[in-house]
Amino acid sequence: MLSFILRRTLWAIPTLIVVSFISFLIIQLPPGDYATAYAAELRNGGDYITEAQEEAIRTQLGLNDPVLLQYGRWIGNILFHGDFGQSFHWNAPVSDLIWDRLALTLLLSTLSLVFTWIIAIPIGVYSAQRQYSFLDYLFTVFGFLGKGIPDFLLALVLMWISFIWLNLDVGGLMSPQFEGQPLTWAKFVNILSHIWIPIVVLATGGAAGLIRVMRANMLDELGKPYVETAYAQGLSERQVVWRYPVRVALNPFISTVGWALPALFSGDVITAVVLNLPTTGPLLLQALKMQDMYLAGSFILILSVFTVIGTLISDILLAWSDPRIRYA
Amino acid sequence: MTPKTNTAQLPKDVLLDLQDVKVSFETREGTVTAVNGVSYKVRPGEVLGIVGESGSGKSVTVRAIMRLLAKNAIEGPKGSIRFNPNGDQTYDLHELSRDNRQIRALRGNRIGMIFQEPMTALSPVHSIGSQISRTVMLHRKSTKAEARARARDLLERVQLPNPDLMLDRFPHQLSGGMRQRAMIALALACDPSLLIADEPTTALDVTTEAQILELLKSLQAELGMAIIFITHNFGVVADIADRVAVMYLGQIVETGDVDDIFYAPKHPYTQALLQSIPRLGQKKVRRLKTIRGSVPDPYHIPSGCPFHNRCDHADAALCTQERPPLRGFDNGQEARCHFAGQLPEASL
Fold first, then answer.
1. Domain ABC transporter: where (chain B) (predicted)?
2. Bridge partners (DSSP) listed for residue B74
């Protein structure tokens, strides 16, 4: 087991080097650079800026240097100084911008993941055990609805409902008067009254899909001979189902748990924009639009690190839960 | 755990008594009667071989005993399955539902079961040791350490090499024969008085099959449990069984001691089956006989004697109309044929 983890960890290093280089290249690919975008923004605002001034900005930011040199400078600073560079657009260190939002993003993603599993696993198991029963059909209908409704629409509907009927102020993570205040009980309650909407929105979409996966896996597993063997030992139906087939049917959940990390870090941008959440998604979107390359590059790098770590976590969990993988 | 009061106590020398067991399945295409009035007895310590083609209802019958029928199964209104595990307390299993507490206390405890597919019949995510000790702990209320010691004992008893190592092995690390040995250890976890073996050697190669049969025989001699041994292989039956029941389309067509069945079969189906098996020392000139036609589809079971359309001796008037009664003989042999005892001796 230990050598398995070590091997996987070592493999992560070359992967990350390649990924970071490619992501840096991709950001450079579109025509123009930050200087172009910045000049265009100024001109749109009515300011006058000469070609020479634009060129001066470009030189000052080091955008004329060869790509390899720029990459080397950027990655070197990250590795040796923990410095992700400066965001041109925000005129602030990239790390400040990202880490602020990261904590909230991780909290939100963890909560919605837990919520997704709490909904999806029992319903999936029940649906498989009582296939074609009334409740199975009901859950199936709700599952497809949940899968079919776009997240941002659900977010809008929930915001409207809680605004009109529940009289809550919605959007954002907390009411404006708590912004920047130290954490008190009132603030905590206020955050809770806001955070349920994004969690419900993120969890329904995910749960709807996972219910189908869990149901299909369980249907496969319930028909296997080892389940009958378990019954033949005198275990009750509940003991059999939860100790045997569920253990096996959970594999796809475990093998994708790691992806939740990057998915919730970058994904659900639209939901986050609609709900005005200070998570990382909207920031990345903007950085890409502005060709704010150190910000965007660092983002994608962190994303890749998360993906690699997430996959590693999944692999380790899977090996821990399923001996067939551990000894393969 | 008191048995139902209206269950007649079985005599001490009867372990299991099936009377008129009937099981059908509701399917989209109609109702299929898989078991149509099966009755048999198992005495303590005896090996009953049940032989039949696929679809003859042999597996469904033992699943009715275990109360592990599929959820769309319908059982006949009559019928009883009486089980007398210790000689002094009779349960009518027919009355018990699938998840009933009484049957759960018997399963894995007084009745052990071995399945056909050793490759898939053990949980892939639990070690051999933990699967066995879970059963021991469930029925014997023993501690984890005691159960593990018991599991180790059992693995040694089924002659797995290195039982201490095997405890922590997982099924995918074992060969087919080793898995079937582990499966037997699991079925014997609580010293059952009845072991049901549902085609335990069908999925194994011939050499391994012989070893597993040898093991089952020696365990039976040592522990004294009764075995219901289901197979479609007459050779295996000859090797292990004391008595044989031959099934065809959900009915038992003939029962008797193993020698009587092999040397003096009374039912045309049994005769035809035995004639279709090659034997050592047989004269080479004779072609191996086959049974005419094929097994009728289960939605359209022939009227009268279900075997009449494939039988060489069938009488057009009698056999197509009337279901034959069970005819008994002095040696205990029984055959469900109008002409049992009057047929010419089969040349075997």
1. 16-274
2. B24
Q: Is the pLDDT of residue B79 over 50?
A: yes
Lowest mean pLDDT among A116-125, B221-230, B274-283, B332-341: B274-283
Chain B hits for A247, CB-CB cut-off 8 Å, are: 123, 125
Looking at residue B173, what DSSP letter applies? G
Closest CB to B115: pick one of A225, A235, A323: A225
Are B258 and B244 contacting, i.e. CB atoms less than 8 angstroms apart? yes
Residues A223-244, mean pLDDT to the nearest whole number: 94
Domain-embedded: residue B261: no
Give the largest CA-CA distance in chain B: 68
- Is B91 in contact with B7 (CB distance < 8 Å)? yes
d(CA A285, CA A276): 14
Beta bridge partners of A310: none
Query: Are the beta carbons of B107 and A230 separated by less than 8 Å?
Result: no
Secondary structure letter of residue B107 according to DSSP: B
pLDDT band at B5 (very low <50, low <70, confident <90, very high): very low
> Distance from CA of residue A322 to its chain's centroid?
26
Q: Phi, psi (5° rounding) for residue B227?
A: -130, 135
Confidence grade of residue A257 (pLDDT, cut at 50, 70, 90): confident
How far is Cα B27 from Cα B20, in angstroms, rounded to an integer? 22
- Looking at residue A90, its pLDDT comes to 79
Here the ipTM equals: 0.89
* Beta carbons of A228 and B183 less than 8 Å apart: no
Q: A103-289 has which CATH code?
A: 1.10.3720.10
Measure CB to CB from residue B122 to each of A226, A237, A322 and give the nearest one: A226
A228 contact B CB<8A:
yes
Write the single-letter amino acid at B323.
R
Q: What is the pLDDT of residue A255?
A: 83
**Beta-carbon contacts below 8 Å between A and B:** 78
Provide the CATH number for the domain around residue B241.
Answer: 3.40.50.300
Radius of gyration of chain B (CA): 21
Give the pLDDT confidence score for residue A313 in this predicted structure.
Answer: 85
Domain that holds residue B215: 16-248
Angle of CA points B228, B234, B236, to nearest 5°: 60
Scanning every residue of chain B, which has its alpha carbon at the shortest distance from the alpha carbon of A223? B70
Q: Give the start-to-end residue ranges of the domains of chain A.
A: 103-289
Domain count, chain B: 1
